[in-house]
Structure formats: structure tokens, C-alpha cells
Amino acid sequence: MKERHYRIMFAAAVFGAIVWLSVSLREQYQVTVQAPLAIEEIPSGWAIRTPLPPAVQLKYRGDGWRLLFLVLGSEIKLSSPYASLAGSVSGQTADASLLPSPATARQARSISLFDLADRMVSRPGIELVSVTPDSFLIGLDRYEEKRVPVAPDLTLSFREGYGQVGGATVVPDSITLGGAASVLTAITTWPTISERWDDLRLPVEQDVPLSPSVGYQLTFSTPQVHISLNVQPFAEKTFPGIVVAVPGAPSDREVILIPPKIEIVARAGIRKLAALEPGEFRVFIDYQTILADSTGMIEPTVIGPPEVQVVSRRPDRCQYIVRRKL
Hints:
The protein is an alpha+beta fold. It folds into three domains: 2-138, no CATH class; 144-229, YbbR-like domain (RNA Polymerase Alpha Subunit, Chain A, domain 2); 236-324, RNA Polymerase Alpha Subunit, Chain A, domain 2 (Beta Complex), CATH 2.170.120.30. The chain has nine helices and 25 strands. The N and C termini lie far apart (117 Å).
């Protein structure tokens, strides 16, 4: 009996919800949907040079049932051939606008997004209330292509005792962009999407998409690149007795350093560290730095091989005495 009672209560609740929903959806509502914007069939040899809104907000008004089907239906897209836009604005026919003159093509024209949306995505029984933004500028420039290097946008963290050996390898290391000449002029590199890789302790091999073009219609020779990272266990090694040089000293002057040698602690991948020799470090104090100093203590400059981090030096500073050679 108790189980039957629960079933009756559940059925009544479902029936009540259906009735309430049916009545409610007969009321008038407003809903806002986002629609991507695309301009198609650009005349050959030309490209859009003005930024386009990546998405347009369309506000509709209508009864709840119709708006529900609108929201749950297929994605709304705003797309139009350039010829119909240019022809409608300039008063020319669509065929004539397919071959714009340089003067008219480069001239930015204001296009009403409300008219475009009302014409393309009208729905029976649903009224288009507003469009945001309500208009945009469109202008063309000569189509060109440009080769630019890829800039990986990576945030890395490593497990304790591990680190990156060498830089990231990107294949291909550069891509070809296609678009309006005036837009390409300002582009010197192109980033990947932002990636965060944490707790790394093994080499990484991963395909990473290129960052999309926001606002401008550009083409890419490839949608993604392959990134390789060499991650190895790291260790530290001490290199004692490295001589501190004094380049730039005149022939009639002698510089005595105290101490004349220092000890370096270096950090690198285990394999790199095993093959590392003391002679691969360059330690020096430039003579001009000594002349400009007033403290009597100078920190030497240490330059090590690539992929090697100098963790510390002992001592940190050297005293000096400058005297005339006998």
C-alpha cells in the first residue's frame, strides 16, 4: 500500500508539473542567444581587413513553446556572401560587387546586423527584438600570405628534482597566415592556445592547437603544432677552483683578485651534468667595472653552457687590488 501511495504521489507531481509547464509556456518571454558571424565568398584576391564581432547576441520575444524550440534547436549562425552585403550597401548589383575597385573595397562600410539577422534567421511567431552589436564595419584589402614563427604559450611546473633540458621543440616551427595585407603587417609571431602542464617528470610529446584568430578572418597553413619537451631528473655538481679573469685591463696595470678562484655549484639534467667540464664556464670581472666601483668588492660574472643553471658561487664577491706592473 505504501509503495502504491508513493507512485500515485509521483504521478500527480509529474502531471502537475506538465500542466504548469504547459500553461507557463503559453506566456510571452524574451530570450537571448549567441550566433557566430561569418562573411563568405570574399572576392578572389581580397580579404576582410576590418575586425568582425566573433559572436552576435540576438534577443527574441515570443511564446514560451516557440522560444524553447529555438533555444534547444540547432545553432543559429549569421553568414552572408560579401556580394550581397556590398551590393546592398553600395547600391550596385551583387555581380558588380564581386570585382570591387581598390578604392571602394578598402572603404569601410557600415552593415546593419539587425537587418541581416532579421532576413536570415526569422522564425514564425517569434519577433527579433534587438541585436548586439547592432552594426559593424566591413572593408577589404589585398589578400596576402605571410610566414611567421609559432610562439608556444606554455606554463610549466616540474616535480621536485626534475626540470626541462633545452627549449621546447615545435614542429612546424612556423606557419603561413593568409589574410588582409594591412592585418598581416602587424603580426610577427602566432601563439598556440594557452596550455598548463604540471608535475612534469617525463618527456612530453603533444599536439597543441594554434590560438584562434579573434576578430579577423585569417587562414592557417595548419591548425596545430607538435610540441616536444625534454624533461629529465636534475642534479647539482660542484666545480671548484675556476679562475676569475679580468678582461680589458691595460698592459701596464695588474689586477690582483682575492680570491683569484671561485667555486661554482651548477644544476642541470643528469646526463648533461655528467659530461660537464669546468672549462665550459666563463668567470670574469670586467676592468671597466672595477674602475667604476667604490666598494672594493665586486661580484664576478658567470656564464655557463646552455641548459645549465648556476645555483651558487663561493665566494659571492672578490676583493681586488689594482697596481702598476713593475
